[in-house]
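At this stage, I put together one protein's amino acid sequence and its backbone structure tokens, which the following lines show:
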Amino acid sequence: MRVLVLKGGPDAEREVSIKSGSQVAAALARANAHVNEITIDRLDLADLRALDGDVIFPVLHGPWGEGGPLQELLEQDGRPYVGCQPAAARLAMDKTATKIAVARAGVSTPLACEVLMGKPITVKLPLVIKPSNDGSSVDLRICRTAEELASARQHLEGRRPRLIAEEFIQGREFTVGILNGKVLPLIEIKANSGVYDYQAKYVRNDTQYILDPKISPELKDAMNRHALLCWHALGLRDVARVDFMADERGPWFLEVNTMPGFTDHSLVPKAAKHAGISMEQLVLELAQGALNRAAKLQV
């Protein structure tokens, strides 16, 4: 099997993508796959078709690489690839549209509104402001006072065309990985700073990741059930990670990642390992699954 691993891209999470892609490529090589590992910025269809590989593993994060544009190119290229199709990728990258879709499926999600320059925000303090089409908590701000809110808006509104304000949920943070439609072991996230932001995710080493956390069976079942409701409501495939906060009322959906990270800090590999799935098995299953899906379509 010849696997074309794409990493990098033009988005804010480029460095994370490069680290993730390198880990994926190394694991595939250890599993005896032939790997063509390529760092890209943007590419066009001709560029993509010039790259060797039977199946494409696009380990990119952010609006271009994970949110539809690259997936459109992959569809035009015609080779099997890992991850969502374009429509699902676009939907899942848009936090506002995602919240509407999962709420219709019966999943609880914090109150939110789009942030429009010069217009009042209808969500009450404390709240979270974040880009509505980016990941890795890039440019996320928690605002507890009117002064913090004004500062966040001044900093973000000029350079982020789309922002969302969301009710701040004070509680415990969890994530549920999904592999081929089946949930992986749940992980609780404890950021030392109290905020699971970009630094806590990828830079600092003081974030705790707790597998089999001490929670009630009812809460665990609710998060697993809601994660799968999100998976189906958004039309996801292959792999995803669904993030939740939980308080005394229950779990609250935050967002979904359709191409989760594969760095040494990343959560899907941690959950898979806890389930007895090595990194080599994980990436090989994803690449082989994409090949098998294409073969079935040709029958």
The mean pLDDT is 93.
